[in-house]
Amino acid sequence: MKKLSLVCIALLCLARLNAQEYKPSAANLKQREWFNDARFGMFIHWGPFSIPGAGEWVMNERKVTVENYSRLEKFFNPIDFDAEKWVSTAKNAGMKYITLITRHHDGFSMWDTKYSDFNIMNTPYKKDIVKMMADECHKQGIKLYLYYSLLDWRREDYPHETGKTGQFSGRKGHGDYATYLQFMKNQLTELLTNYGEIGGIWFDGHWDQTAPEGAADRSSRIDWKYNEIYGLIHRLQPQCMIGNNHHMTPFAGEDFQMFEQDLPGENKSGLSFQQASAHLPLEACITINGSWGFNLTDTSYKSKPALIRTLVKSSSLGANLLLNIGPMPNGEIQPEFIERLNGMGEWLKTYGESIYGTTAGFVKPQSWGSVTQKGNKVYIHILDPKNASVLFDKFPFKKITKAYLLKDKSAVKYSLKNGSAAITTGFSNTEIDNVVVLDVAN
Ligand code: FHN
User: Fold this and answer.
1) Which atom from ligand 1 is nearest to the alpha carbon of 151?
2) CA 309 to CA 355: how far, in whole Å?
3) What is the pLDDT of residues 379-403, one digit of tens each?
4) Which residue ranges does the chain devote to CATH 2.60.40.1180?
5) pLDDT recorded at residue 5
6) Phi/psi-derived region of residue 280, left when phi > 0, alpha when psi is between -120 and 50, beta in every other case
7) Which residue, 27, 298, 334, 358, has most beta carbons within 10 Å?
8) Any idea which architecture 369-441 has in CATH?
């Protein structure tokens, strides 16, 4: 008996150790490397929630019951949706991947799923959006990442009694996590079996079961059994990266860390109290206006220069920028977004070398700008050209062999003495970013 208990304890310890000691596969590590180099992606928030033009939280914010919300299914007919156009818009913007909403908190599935009737095939449109996007992404060489909500405002079995949101849905039944978990596993299996190679799964909604961001104790009111979910994903597609937008330090089994409406190290949103991981790839997801889903009245568009500077700053912190668009209910992307995306793509044609494949700079962003690095090149991004020179007290390289403007290769004055480097700037121009390239050696 004693022997048996000892064996049981040993087995339990081993299981625990396995869950904690996640060793990413070689394919997964390779995918992380690719992701780190990619630096720029497109986030797409789209679905029947786009119809009212009031953002993707409309169901919760307007206290719409499940029964009334279901009507949207019959109105969703995005006849102007063109996967080829969306993917080429991302490509022309210089983006390397797309993260597509497959199921948001409202519970609507954008693909032909066997596990929920509230899905795209039961709309007048009747075409599998995920399939069309997956095929087009594969065709155009853009990697596809899939957003999947852990939180559900519709299903009875989601543990809604303990959830912070979704309280006006009119649900009467009791949550039952075991069946909800099985449902999620079934859907994830479909997504990872029927749509070719998937770059990653982007989870969201964990925070529904915790105290708000910033609270001392953010433990979850339910056990999500992530080891089962993550294990399944890594088994089905070993390269597939897992990220979870819980606004906390990454959990075991996760392959990247995201920040919402903040760059790593910032907390303007009030959601980002967590520190940036030192070893996982990082991503900052940011909106072009203030909304994720299509919003008819939100015209607070960030300017093209501001968006480019966010991309630069994010790269200088070693993070990707996942820039969001909320297409209109007819499937068109609004012109204000297209114009900015095209502008970023144009800029990247000249300056992409200082963004793609770079690592974080040896100094954090400064008032004058930021630094990115690649091999023996240091890219000094002078975002505010008013300063006459940029100084580095502790320059980490022994030699600078050349300094020039990335734009036209014209020489830039510099000095390096006793470990301090100075770059003479004082450009009298209105460039969004004067990028000075330093060829360095040790
Ligand atoms: O509730 C969602 C929100 O609708 C949106 O999807 C963002 C994207 O990061 N995440 C959640 C809020 O944290």
Assistant:
1) 1
2) 11
3) 999 998 787 789 999 999 999 999 9
4) 369-441
5) 52
6) beta
7) 358
8) Sandwich (2.60)
Domain with CATH 3.20.20.80 in the chain: 26-358
Backbone angles phi, psi at 49, to 5 degrees: -65, -15
- CA-CA distance, 17 to 342, in Å (whole number)? 48
Contact 391, 408 (CB under 8 A): no
Would strands 377-382 and 389-392 be described as parallel, antiparallel, or unpaired?
unpaired
Question: Which structure tokens are listed for 352?
Answer: 């992409």
Residue type for 269, please?
S
Per CATH, the homologous superfamily of domain 26-358 is Glycosidases (3.20.20.80)
| Amino acid (one-letter) located at 303 | S
Q: Which two tokens stand for residue 291?
A: 């909304």
Predicted confidence at residue 33, as pLDDT, reads: 98
pLDDT classification of 21: cutoffs 50, 70, 90 = confident
CB within 8 Å of 322: residues ≥ 6 apart: 41, 42, 43, 99, 258, 283, 284, 285, 286
| Residue 324 vs residues 211, 230, 246, 260, 422: alpha-carbon distances, Å | 26, 25, 18, 11, 37
Q: What is the pLDDT of the chain when averaged over all its residues?
A: 95
Rounded Cα distance between 326 and 324, Å, is: 7
> Strands 257-260 and 389-392: what pairing?
unpaired
Ligand 1, atom 8, lies closest to the CA of 260
What does the pLDDT read at residue 15?
44
Please report the atom of ligand 1 found closest to the CA of residue 260. 9
Residue located nearest, by CA, to atom 11 of ligand 1: 204
Helix or strand (DSSP H, E) at 359:
strand 359-360
Q: Of the candidates 271, 163, 162, which has an alpha carbon nearest to the alpha carbon of residue 212?
A: 271
Please list, in sequence order, all residues whose beta carbon lies within 8 angstroms of the beta carbon of residue 193, skipping any fewer than 6 positions away. 236
Ligand 1 mutation pick, 110, 260, 287, max ligand atoms within 8 A of CB = 260
